[in-house]
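Chain A, query sequence.
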Amino acid sequence: DLYAWGASLGLRFGAGPFSLSAEGQLGRNWRNSLGSAGISPAAMAGAASINTATGSIQDSKCYGGWIDLAFKLGPATPHLIYGYASGEGSGTDKTKATSQMIGISMPISLAKGFSLRPEVMFYFDGTNNKNSAGKGINNGSYGIYGLQFQITF
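Chain A, predicted structure.
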């Protein structure tokens, strides 16, 4: 039988104009339940595999987390964000992948219920990842830059 599970613990703390939010997650076989539906190397490595010699299921280990530090500055609230995800095979499956992200997001309130949110995010998909045979892979890095228009009801 294949079992997939996940657990997370989050927290939020605020003091005056500062706030800190964070969450940590851990589990098994997230890819099999679409619990990590992304296409980052860490998400892709989160699937169970089958040992073809014995027919047994080899569970994957999955963990990750994020932290968000924010400061209210008039109509703007800059956020500094860091995220981490990892997936690792077991037994004969030597897959191991880590992805990290760091970014800045700054919602700017222009009117009640309307804000602009410029964002810059950098993703590092691992220079020391391993495929199922244990061979090293460099998945590189990339950036995403954008501007969101947000309407809140």
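The chain has a mean pLDDT of 87. Residues 5-151 form one domain.
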